[in-house]
Amino acid sequence: MDGSKTNTKTLQETLCGVILNFRPICFSLLVAATAFTTVGCATYQDYVRQARNHLEDGDPALAATELKPLANKPGKDQLVYVLDYATALQAEGRYKLSNKYFDLADQLSDWKDYINLSREAGSLLFAQELVQYKGEDYEKLLINLMEALNYLMLGDHQDARVEVRAMSNKLAYFKEKEDKSYEQNTMALYLSGLMWEDDHDFDSAYIEYAHAYKHDPNIPSLHEALVRTAKLAGRTQAYKKWSKKFHIKWNPKWTDPHYGELVLIYEQGWAPRKYPMPNAPEYPELFPVQSATQSARLIVAGGPSVKTQTVFSVQKVAMKTLNGEYKTLAEKQLAGFAAKQVVASQVSQKNQALGTILDIAMQASDRADLRQWSTLPQTCQVARVFLKVGSYKVSVQGLTADGTPSIDSRAPQTFKIEPRRKTFFIWRSFH
């Protein structure tokens, strides 16, 4: 902490020296320009609004085109645009390229990054959005989940599992090194269970499903998965326990070589969005984005239909994370106010007019940092159905909260069901 104070003091003295070397008229123009660029210019939310509109219009390719130059431009905001671009590419079905940019995002987020004292001290004097964006912790974790989904769609279970493990390593790091406690991502655990089950490693699948159940026991399809994999893994006692607890009997289709399984991974809606807090506009606040489509129905032509079940809520995690950071934000705001007063006072000792202008400009530059990975879904949901081996036309219908059809839907697509294997596909709705 002493080193931080020393660096801050040194930075203040350096800034004062530079400022006082300006001629009054030049400095006045500089300060005015600084205040204008931080207060009058567009925010991150303004820059990505058009791309999000394209996603809502069902045109992820156009959204990706809009975001590509921003994602490829180095600078303090690059990470947030890379995340949005990679998400648009995933929605477009360009999974390999999407992962290329998620890999870049993982590097830019530098999740083991040490605190750069000079950068932190500089951020005390002007707006937080002038500092390089490194991502929220939950965003750093979700990078790996999105990569795992891409690898799953590419048929690469091994690399998908690598991403799930990478997420677990990050969670352990945050807990041990930074004393931050985050809940395990149930979607990552569920996804890992699906892949192990598809590879017929039923014991590993059971372990992952059991971990997911421990974190969220209210996912109905997990109950069936626990019964099935416990039996197939030879865990007799566990099989008896779960089948009795959930009142689920053995289904012959689960091991019938004439059957396989179709699995829909559904990304619903939008994660909450950052706007200035109404009563304290220098702080960001997350506001839920209302979605008409709350779930979806997987429809097999001439066969069954299954409603999706929520496995993970990005919205809950995001809002919980930001709520836990307000104390830190408030402390930084107070420290920033004090630092600005010190610098302005030191300048005023040499030139009172310049000190006054500087104080006004620095205080005026205070506004909420609205940067975030705003193209994330609100929830991740799953629908599963066992089908006889063969080809099927499959569609998806979005559903409102009361179960009636919404405007979101996916046109019929043909999927091939293979013996005792899983066929995966992803769908995202934006309304």
Task: Provide tags for this entry.
alpha+beta, 2 domains, four-stranded mixed β-sheet, four-stranded antiparallel β-sheet, 16 helices, 55% helix, disordered N terminus
Describe, in plain words, how this protein is organized in 3D:
- Residues 1-40 and 114-122 have low confidence and may be disordered.
- It contains 16 helices and ten strands.
- By secondary structure, it is α+β, with helices and mostly antiparallel strands.
- The protein has a four-stranded mixed sheet. A four-stranded antiparallel sheet has the order 5-4-8-9, with no helix packed on it.
- The protein has two domains: 2-182 and 251-429, no CATH class; 195-250, no CATH class.
- 39% of the residues are buried.
* Secondary-structure-derived class: alpha+beta
Query: What is the count of distinct domains?
Result: 2
Strand order of the largest sheet: 6-7-1-10
Strand content: 15-25%
Count helical runs: 16
Task: Provide mean pLDDT, rounded.
Answer: 84
Low-confidence sequence ranges: 1-40, 114-122
Percent helix: 40-55%
Largest sheet: 4 strands, mixed
- Give the termini distance in whole angstroms: 47 Å
Overall 3D form? globular
Cα-atom radius of gyration: 26 Å
What's the β-strand tally?
10
Order of helices and strands: HHHHHHHHHHHHHEEEEEEHHHEEEE
